[in-house]
Amino acid sequence: MNTQEQIKHLFEKLNTDDQILILEELHRVNNSNNEPPNAASVENCPYCSSVLLSKNGHRGVQQRYKCKVCHKTFTSVSGSCSLDFIDFKNHSISFHPVR
What we know:
The protein folds into 2 domains: about 1-35 and about 85-95; about 35-80, no CATH class. The chain contains 2 helices and 5 strands. About 30% of the residues lie in helices and about 25% in strands.
């Protein structure tokens, strides 16, 4: 069972009130991450610490970067939880990995 399946399994064991509290908190955290990042905040690659970076499009409103050393792409919030969809009526969550 992968991590996403484990989270979903544990979530389904919670009572409705606890599920709603978690969904509201995830929604709050997800919305706080949708603010446009400060371009100056990305100074080096989070994977190899190189400062040789180039801009590489956008992910929503966030600037994407590509490392010229390890060739990985990232945003200023890479490594954080990315929840693209929360359905409060059905209490379901769809997870989409950050690439």
